[in-house]
Design goal:
8 helices; Quinone Oxidoreductase, Chain A, domain 1; homodimer
Chain lengths: 349, 349
């Protein structure tokens, strides 16, 4: 490999306050990047990108305003960054060597990049039989979100009734399996009959329903939760959250992981939740969370989850799209009901 | 005093699902009650009622349905019960003697009653210079609610920005003073300019606004919270809660004490809160609470609060209505914007 590489990358051309992001907002370009040794600062690494994680929260970084999600915004004309698996080409940090495969919390959506080693979450041991894409799924953002939601905030007990929305999404698949490991009864909602079948047959959910064929969420929850809901991991917000608040048990916990039904709308057009008063009598705790506040727990999570995967207690479903050019399409697939499991872009094999 | 007394009491004649309760729902009657020694079971007391506490949560016990507030309902044709100060006439419990003045968590709204001593919260020492009505205000339900909201759930730090709605109500007056003791900047909303003046001049609030003259809550909060809100003690729900969620700081806490703006409406007609998504990015914790879950902390609270009152750090505002016949009118005064401070019915001097 020479000292200068042709580098294809996605950058932010314009913010997208509402609706689905298009190629007007995220643009693809080719630039030259010097990876010569003297272009790499101290404690930095030149890396090639293997895999990129595509997650719903990215939508919030494209709005151009803090309003609505209060998540830090991508900068105009800059390459966007995501969670990713990278391989070291050249290292200016003694902790890492050429050829090391690393998990990068802030990987540029580019074929090559020079990154500070402080962005590295962990080194990956490719010999222990876990696929690299799992490091972005069950061992990455969605797995960590599921773990924080269930283990840290939801804390269900053996026999607790747990409800998870967007159950066939990457967070939902992991969260359902974690709740089952805790001995809970777990019900999921998802967008098609096939997905309901999938979460029951492959991911251990006790039952589930298709929210597109249930006109009355309240009636559905009455049916699936005759004993009420103890923990609701909310991934959708809006009407489903409102319906859940009519079925909560005393001291129910509602970790708010994200609200995919609401991301593409400005806030005044979002669905209002009218029954928050239920939270008083039932003493419900509802709590939003962002993974940035839980990095200090990432090691605990990774240790738990690696063991569950090796013991076969957590299974994965990864959709691998080939080629960095598929990034925008991959992002938008999260907001269509066709998506199942974790979406990953494979940049290099 | 003979063995049989004429006893005037308020009982529930009909549930009131929405609107303001009237004399159709709560009726007044006179019955005979035997307080003869052999009418008093073991571990029970015959008492005369001195003072009764009138609190907004009582509204929720009159709806006839658990829906909406999930608070235990009063029983039809039975005397309703509230927090009250009573004096022992005859005791069948060795811990209490004739003449003792007691705080009863579940005092019948009647002139006389026979009650289990397990309902007694504490014995009152009438010689320490605290007025009996304060035992229902700063040392009773509203003081305890303020303490749980601020000290247990809100936990503001020195310099935190604290917002309290219904600030001139009984909970608000106590909560504002507790937050000031913690060294916070405290702003209140209340229903008139006079009340704004009152909370600033008498109860230590740094500032406040009249929600009836602010057409745009969002603009008001921008003005009063240039550095955002760290703790919001919510007593009203609805539009004010929604506006607050546009001004919350990272890790803000919102203890939900009650939602007086929403009590008299069925839930589908309540104001929807559209911006719960803000709770994700700001990692906000919103938590409903009922005092029944915090009785084990009542002793800690009473010790703190008694000291604050004796040191002059917590001042009271009690509206004392004379005569048990004023109970219904006193309850409804809570839902009119004329109410200030703690409403107490004095049954016997």
């Amino acid at each position: 490999m020479g000292d200068v590489v042709e580098n294809r990358e996605w950058y932010l051309a314009a913010y997208c306050p509402e609706g689905v992001p298009t190629s007007e907002h995220l643009k693809f370009r080719t630039v030259s990047l010097s990876i010569a040794s003297d272009s790499i600062p101290h404690n930095h690494l030149a890396v090639e990108t293997l895999l990129l994680s595509v997650d719903p929260y990215l939508r919030g970084r494209l709005t151009g305003t803090l309003e609505g999600l209060f998540i830090s915004q991508y900068q105009l004309n800059q390459v966007i960054t995501v969670f990713g698996v990278v391989r070291v080409i050249r290292s200016k940090d003694s902790k890492y060597n050429e050829g090391d495969i690393l998990l990068n919390r802030s990987a540029p959506v580019a074929e090559y990049s020079i990154v500070p080693s402080s962005d590295i979450a962990r080194k990956i041991d490719a010999t222990i039989g876990i696929s690299l894409s799992d490091y972005l799924g069950s061992l990455g953002i969605p797995g960590f979100a599921a773990w924080v939601g269930i283990e840290v905030l939801g804390k269900p007990k053996v026999g607790s009734n747990v409800f998870i929305s967007a159950a066939s999404g990457a967070v939902g698949i992991n969260a359902g399996q974690l709740a089952k490991i805790r001995g809970c009864r777990v019900i999921g909602s998802t967008g098609s009959d096939d997905k309901v079948k999938l979460i029951k047959e492959e991911f251990g959910y006790d039952d589930g329903f298709n929210y597109n064929s249930e006109s009355d969420f309240d009636a559905a929850l009455t049916k699936y939760f005759p004993d009420g809901i103890d923990v609701y991991l909310d991934n959708v917000g809006g009407k489903m959250l409102e319906a859940v608040l009519n079925h909560v048990n005393k001291y129910a916990r509602i970790p708010l992981c994200g609200m995919i039904s609401q991301y593409n709308k400005v806030w005044t057009e979002r669905e209002g939740v009218r029954n928050l008063l239920n939270m008083v009598g039932k003493e419900v705790r509802m709590e939003g969370f962002m993974l940035e506040s839980y990095w200090h727990r990432f090691g605990d999570f990774a240790k738990d989850m690696e063991r569950y995967i090796q013991e076969g207690k957590v299974k994965s479903k990864n959709k691998i799209n080939i080629g960095i050019e598929s990034f925008l399409e991959s992002l938008n697939s999260l907001f269509s009901s066709s998506n199942i499991g974790k979406v990953v872009v494979q940049v290099k094999a």
